[in-house]
Structure formats: C-alpha cells, structure tokens
C-alpha cells in the first residue's frame, strides 16, 4: 500500500517514508537526538539497539493483527523529525494501534505533533480504521494531555508494566473514528474492559 501523502504541515517540505530494516541507523539517530520519551517512560536514554528492536517488534503471541508499519517524517536533510509505529486490525478488525508516536523535542510546543497526528489519523481512516487504540504512561503529563486533546478516552488502566528501568501504570486509551460507542469497542476487544486480566 502507498505511503500517506506528505502532510500539510507548518514544517516546510516534510515527506513521509515507510521505515524498513535498512533505515535502522536513521531511526536510531532520531531516537538518540530525542531521548526525552525514553527517559520519561523507560528511565534511561534509548539503548544502542532501540531502533532494531522497534523494527523487529511485533504484538505479543496470540494477538491477531494484519500488519505492522513504521512511518518516518523526514526533513529536507533526510533526517527524521517524527515517527509512528502502527499495527492494523489489532485483536479485532478495524482496530488500529499507535504503538509509538514521537515528535522531535525541538518541535514540542509547535503545532507539528497535532498536524502530523491528524494526517496520520486521516490516512488510517482511509485504510479502514474505525478505532484507534494506544497506551500512555501515567505521569507522562505532556503525552496524557496531548492524547486527550486528540479525542482519546481512557477505557482502563494496567499496572505493573515493566518498561526499561521502570515499572509503569498505563492508561489504555481509545478513539472512535466513525462515531462508534466505547461499549461497542469493549465488546470487540474484551482485553480492554476494566477489570479484565
């Protein structure tokens, strides 16, 4: 399938590419230039193999899905200014996961993250997404506020999630793209019901 069209961003000449194994160094450089996410969530800067692991990582055994894709948003110099990890049809048809969404620290406070995510959401919808699901670490205030402003609602919390050097609580958040009800989503994805194991 084609890559999303270049978003109409306030950033000049940003283009979108699908990241492959051959882009490991590009992704690793982005992570190392923008360690804030890893420090806040994992308690340490990105590991030297962080990009390789992200490229290879798949949902847990037994979770159904149709595809995993990594998208990079690159500037004129060919360096990434943002990245997104997506999984389609996760645990149910038309449920997409945003596994990771990082925008360069230098762009925090600008409209870039909102614009990139809005374009990404339109692209997912055109490919059949009816729901978007993600997890946000409790206490990562900037991320929690960002996703709430994008229209996501918490459906449950998961405690005791090991992430790097930290054990975090995770807010599982969902957004309907076609006017669906959260009750309908929870019927399709029992794992996300409050109180489920």
Automatic annotation (TrEMBL):
A GO MF label: acyltransferase activity, transferring groups other than amino-acyl groups
N-acetyltransferase domain segment(s): 17-178
Keyword Transferase on entry: yes
DNA damage among keywords: no
Superkingdom of source: Bacteria
InterPro entries from the UniProt entry: Acyl_CoA_acyltransferase (IPR016181), GNAT_dom (IPR000182)
Keywords from the UniProt entry: Transferase
Protein name: GNAT family N-acetyltransferase
Organism from which the protein derives: Roseateles chitinivorans
